[in-house]
Amino acid sequence: xxxxxxxxxxxxxxxxxxxxxxxxxxxxxxxxxxxxxxxxxxxxxxxxxxxxxxxxxxxxxxxxxxxxxxxxxxxxxxxxxxxxxxxxxxxxxxxxxxxxxxxxxxxxxxxxxxxxxxxxxxxxxxxxxxxxxxxxxxxxxxxxxxxxxxxxxxxxxxxxxxxxxxxxxxxxxxxxxxxxxxxxxxxxxxxxxxxxxxxxxxxxxxxxxxxxxxxxxxx
Length: 219
Prior knowledge:
Blueprint: H1 11-19, H2 33-42, H3 66-72, E1 76-80, E2 98-100, H4 120-132, E3 141-145, H5 166-183
Parallel strand pairs: 1-2, 1-3
Helix pairs in contact: 4-5
């Protein structure tokens, strides 16, 4: 909604944009999850580490991540991951004292590896438990909470049925869960940064999801 989408149902994100700094022009380094996150976490181009495709080349141990910088400065660090694409084996756990990437298929169902994910409600539960465990009372903490629902397949049909578009519905679902997360954080003493690793084609240029082209819709 904060970016002008009339169909958006995102009061939490819109509120953050209204109260904080909204970047009108933001471009991902790659339309793929792992390379883009490598850039987000290190501030360097993924090609600097030889990372071109998701999961094929882990972030090397000698890369310096933002989590490592926070930990070196005395902060407690934790991450909660929603997709196996960011499994700790791919190197993004560097600097995190806690890297919660335990994800399994629901009900024993067989799905593609890239589709193994945790719903936003389960993701939100984990950092709230971490904060309640005492980390929020320490000198400082850095927490990365990764949501994955606004990503193919769009199947959150049980969330806010009046929203007809399945992608908008998943974004609204994550927005609501983000609101639940923020209620468990002392906003007066916490910097909150929201970003995304890439966009979705949603039919633009004939691309339904992402990863093939580098048009603005996916970057």
